[in-house]
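Q: How would the structure tokens look for this protein?
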Amino acid sequence: MNLNYGLIVIVMLFVILMSIQFTLNKIYVILKEIKEIINLRKIKD
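A: Here is the predicted structure in token form.
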């Protein structure tokens, strides 16, 4: 079998970057929800 290691490295890097982006997006959404909850508590007090 003749494997093109350069292509494999590029695909692996792409998958890693996509997973990092997904994780950061999830963290961003959670922080946004926390901010909204804090703002609601401030208004309530």
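DSSP finds one helix and no strands in the chain.

Residues 5-44 form the longest helix (40 residues).

Upvote if useful.
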